């Protein structure tokens, strides 16, 4: 490896040997569109953007960068919400969007073979003629790519029943930083040796670059029906979720919104949500016709028993679509209330919801920033949306401090700092809160097993131990912050 | 969550310092599985007990050597279950051993594998450090997914201490349907049905008989039965229990090979007797073919073979050279002195 910082024109010339010159961008005019992913608070004009068109070009580019000691940041569709694809200084931004072919759908095996740039929704569209679909449905599914979904282990609104990305993958082709191509997983159940598929899924582009993905497709349920319930108290809504699950029903979707989120969504899409409710629940059950009829009756009964003030079943597809439209547009709806919002992604044991929402309310008052809460209630994934105005000096910093407190709170009640968005750059300090130093060290050792030179997406996802000390971030364990007697805001 | 297991950690630290191999063992019900483990026994039976169980959260946390039977009995009281339907292979089976082997049962092809239900895992690594990965929540994408990665690693990465699992409600009703047909048609039917919204939860084919289990609401089972036809198998639950536990003469044969294959793989033209499960993805083969022939047959079909029971030096499908060296580096990341379960997974580990 060269000790001197690599020279742009030399790297460009080397890469031009293995991919079309037109696919290499270094003029800021051309590279600026790639300066940020979905979390635009973090941006950096890329040093060099490379757009390979094939696995061979990816492998060759990685080999060159490895030889020259140039860091590489992989990027998919750029819809990520944790700045995981933030360009690095003096790093090649490896954009996989040209690898966007659906290589095949096998309707009998129920599988689809994909290049990483295929959009999430395009998989289900390709599978639809066979009555099949790809289950994980992040809200960005129109734009986000399957390669990015693998990197982030993306979720969606159906995770409790159908799992995350990691539960719906069969096989990957992974190119290491050294340019070696590995086949991970297989079309057969399980794999010999370690479960590398699990390790790579959600590794945020730190272990390798995925060039091919085989996913499992599921049969489209015959029927899905959603019930909307309103509550005058968030605690009652939370208890109702537990009651439904205790009754042996695993809803396909189970979403909660608090009053600010309801009001924002209603004003934006007129979903028919009751404006005086403290919380609403959307409960969707799917399955065979008979099962859905049975479950809907049970769900309605349980919701009323739990103190719902209103319960409405969507009797037709149009009403179902409308009920869901409010939830699916909750983020942009909240965005209309404020110039900027900051979306958090903590997970908590569901029983902790009333306590956590109460505490978020207190923090909101402390920081003087409004917050709306959208909650994947079935799987405990909370998305508080902190409203702020970046043009007001200090507000972004306040919003970030507020967010960090929410994540520490999630860890303290037994949850996690991210349920589906990933760590990236954004939550790297919070990693020091969630994991003890020995576990962080182990993550670094895993990284070194794949990428000994540390050139792939450096500085993301796993913090250096000395940085945790510098930030003063404290590991929260067993729900106990060190020095609990100190006020902490 | 126990913070530390000082005695176990100290035992590991000393063994590492002296380069002594340790063979991790609790109930010993899986002694038959994998290569011969070298080293002195590290008894972990003290890691016993259910730490937390929240039926309404669908989460259970137990120490690694907690008997599987104890966990399943507790879940059954609340109408819940381990959806990967793990085989026990003996009364002494523990949760940790089951996950170290990565064993799943008949529901595997329809509900998911053992690793799919793991939410968090704590282990003592080869330096004697007690590490916690994942947690007790359904979703957690912070850090690498070491909890699921460690499932099936046969104890070579560390001593499992505590495990958190997602549990699920037991199906309200189950019936088993039986059909007489040849194997090619059975494989086609299993795949075709699995791609339809049918409440399938298990499938088996053996000597001209296809059996499928349906699980769910009673009305849904009636509708599915009307669509599929077939005869209702009396004592269906007992049929699946015996298959899961290998409690039939077929599974007493040795050597017994387990071939994991793409589910649509046509009938295997191999000498010996076979039993098919998991919608076609799992083929048990009792045969005297040489190990080399069986491994080649599995690989040629895009799958892998395991010598499940019986004598033989090579028990697992060989890895491609690049993958094997990655395995060695990962092993070293967790167990730098190479003390855990030498020989159990690969001869040179």
Notes on the structure:
The complex is a heterodimer of chains A (about 500) and B (about 350). With about 500 residues, chain A is of the alpha+beta class. Chain A folds into 4 domains: about 10-95, Uridine Diphospho-n-acetylenolpyruvylglucosamine Reductase, domain 2 (2-Layer Sandwich); about 100-220, Uridine Diphospho-n-acetylenolpyruvylglucosamine Reductase, domain 3; about 225-330, Alpha-Beta Plaits, CATH 3.30.70.2190; about 340-470, Alpha-Beta Plaits (2-Layer Sandwich). Helices cover about 35% and strands about 20% of the residues of chain A. Chain A contains 17 helices and 19 strands. Chain A has helices at about 10-15, 30, 55-70, 120-125, 145-150, 160, 195-200, 235-245, 260-270, 290-305, 315-330, 330-335, 355-365, 395-410, 430-435, 435-450, 465-470; strands at about 25, 50, 70-75, 90-95, 100-105, 110-115, 130-135, 170-175, 180-185, 210-215, 220, 225-230, 255-260, 280-285, 310-315, 340-345, 345, 370-375, 380-390. In chain A, the strands form 4 sheets. In chain A, strands 12, 13, 14, 15, 16, 17, 18 and 19 form an 8-stranded antiparallel beta sheet that branches. In chain A, strand 18 (about 370-375) and strand 19 form a beta hairpin. In chain A, helix 8 crosses helix 10 (about 290-305), helix 9 (about 260-270) packs across helix 11 and helix 13 (about 355-365) packs antiparallel against helix 14. By secondary structure, chain B is α+β, with helices and mostly antiparallel strands. Chain B has 2 domains: about 5-170 and about 330-335, Uridine Diphospho-n-acetylenolpyruvylglucosamine Reductase, domain 3 (2-Layer Sandwich), CATH 3.30.465; about 175-310. In chain B, about 25% of the residues lie in helices and about 25% in strands. Chain B is built from 10 helices and 17 strands. At the A-B interface, helix 7, helix 8, helix 10, helix 15 and helix 16 of A face strand 7, helix 5, strand 9, helix 6 and helix 7 of B.
């Amino acid at each position: 490896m060269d000790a001197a910082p690599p020279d742009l024109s030399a790297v460009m010339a080397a890469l031009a040997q293995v991919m079309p010159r037109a696919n290499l961008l270094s003029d800021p005019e051309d590279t600026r569109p790639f300066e940020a992913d979905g979390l635009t608070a973090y941006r950096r004009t890329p040093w060099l953007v490379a757009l390979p068109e094939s696995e061979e070009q990816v492998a060759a580019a990685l080999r060159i960068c490895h030889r020259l000691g140039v860091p590489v940041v992989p990027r998919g569709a750029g819809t990520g919400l944790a700045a995981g694809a933030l360009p690095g200084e003096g790093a090649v931004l490896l954009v996989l969007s040209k690898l966007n072919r659906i290589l095949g759908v096998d309707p009998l095996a129920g599988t689809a073979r994909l290049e990483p740039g295929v959009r999430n929704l395009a998989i289900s569209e390709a599978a639809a003629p066979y009555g099949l679909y790809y289950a994980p449905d992040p809200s960005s599914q129109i734009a986000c790519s399957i390669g990015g979904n693998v990197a982030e282990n993306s979720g969606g609104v159906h995770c409790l029943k159908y799992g995350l990305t990691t539960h719906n993958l069969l096989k990957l082709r992974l190119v290491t930083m050294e340019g070696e191509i590995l086949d991970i997983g297989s079309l057969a159940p399980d794999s010999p040796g370690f479960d590398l598929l699990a390790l790579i899924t959600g590794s945020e582009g730190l272990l390798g670059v995925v060039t091919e993905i085989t996913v499992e497709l599921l049969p489209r349920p015959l029927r899905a029906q959603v019930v909307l319930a309103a509550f005058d108290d968030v605690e009652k809504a939370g208890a109702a979720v537990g009651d439904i699950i205790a009754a042996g029903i695993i809803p396909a979707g189970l979403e909660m919104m608090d009053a600010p989120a309801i009001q924002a969504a209603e004003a934006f899409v007129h979903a028919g949500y009751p404006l005086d409710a403290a919380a609403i629940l959307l409960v969707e059950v799917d399955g065979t016709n008979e099962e859905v009829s049975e479950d809907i009756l049970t769900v309605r009964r349980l919701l009323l028993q739990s103190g719902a003030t209103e319960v409405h079943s969507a009797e037709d597809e149009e009403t179902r679509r409308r009920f869901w439209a409010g939830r699916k547009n909750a983020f942009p709806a909240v965005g209309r209330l404020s110039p900027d919002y900051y979306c958090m992604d903590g997970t908590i044991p569901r029983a902790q919801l009333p306590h956590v929402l109460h505490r978020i309310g207190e923090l909101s008052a402390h920081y003087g920033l409004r917050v709306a809460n959208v909650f994947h209630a079935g799987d405990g994934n909370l998305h508080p949306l902190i409203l702020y105005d970046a043009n007001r000096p200090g507000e972004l910093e306040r919003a970030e401090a507020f967010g960090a407190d929410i994540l520490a709170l999630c860890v303290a009640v037994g949850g996690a700092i991210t349920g589906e968005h990933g760590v990236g750059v954004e939550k790297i300090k919070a990693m020091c809160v969630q994991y003890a130093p020995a576990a962080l060290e182990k993550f670094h050792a895993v990284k070194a097993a794949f990428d000994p030179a540390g050139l792939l997406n450096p500085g993301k996802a796993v913090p250096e131990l000395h940085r945790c000390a510098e930030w003063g971030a404290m590991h929260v364990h067993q729900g106990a912050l060190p020095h609990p007697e100190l006020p902490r805001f | 969550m126990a913070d530390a297991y000082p005695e176990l950690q100290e035992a590991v630290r000393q063994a590492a310092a002296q380069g002594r191999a340790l063979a991790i063992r609790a109930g010993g019900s899986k002694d038959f599985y994998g290569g011969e483990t070298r080293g002195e026994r590290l008894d972990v039976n003290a890691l016993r007990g259910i730490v937390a169980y929240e039926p309404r959260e669908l989460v259970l946390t137990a120490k690694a050597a907690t008997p599987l039977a104890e966990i399943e009995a507790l879940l059954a009281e609340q109408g819940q279950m381990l959806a990967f339907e793990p085989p026990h292979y003996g009364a002494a089976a523990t949760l940790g051993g089951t996950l170290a082997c990565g064993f799943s049962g008949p529901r595997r092809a329809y509900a998911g594998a053992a690793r799919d239900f793991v939410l968090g895992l704590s282990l003592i690594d080869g330096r004697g450090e007690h590490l916690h990965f994942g947690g007790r929540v359904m979703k957690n994408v912070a850090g690498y997914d070491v909890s699921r990665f460690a499932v099936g690693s046969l104890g070579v990465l560390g001593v499992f201490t505590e495990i958190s699992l997602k549990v699920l409600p037991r199906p309200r009703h189950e019936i088993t349907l039986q059909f007489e047909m040849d194997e090619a048609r059975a494989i086609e039917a299993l795949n075709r049905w699995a791609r339809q919204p049918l409440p399938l939860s298990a499938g088996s084919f053996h000597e001209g008989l296809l059996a499928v289990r349906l699980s769910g609401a009673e009305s849904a089972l009636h509708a599915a039965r009307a669509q599929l036809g077939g005869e209702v198998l009396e004592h269906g639950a007992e049929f699946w229990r015996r298959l899961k536990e290998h409690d039939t003469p077929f599974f007493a044969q040795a050597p017994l090979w387990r071939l994991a294959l793409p589910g649509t793989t046509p009938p295997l033209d191999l000498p010996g007797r076979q039993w098919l499960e998991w919608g076609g993805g799992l083929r048990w083969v009792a045969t005297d073919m040489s190990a080399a022939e069986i491994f080649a047959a599995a690989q040629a079909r895009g799958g892998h073979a395991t010598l499940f029971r019986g004598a033989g030096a090579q028990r697992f499908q060989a890895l491609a050279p690049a993958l094997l060296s990655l395995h060695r580096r990962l092993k070293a990341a967790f167990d730098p002195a190479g003390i855990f379960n030498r020989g159990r997974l690969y001869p040179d580990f």
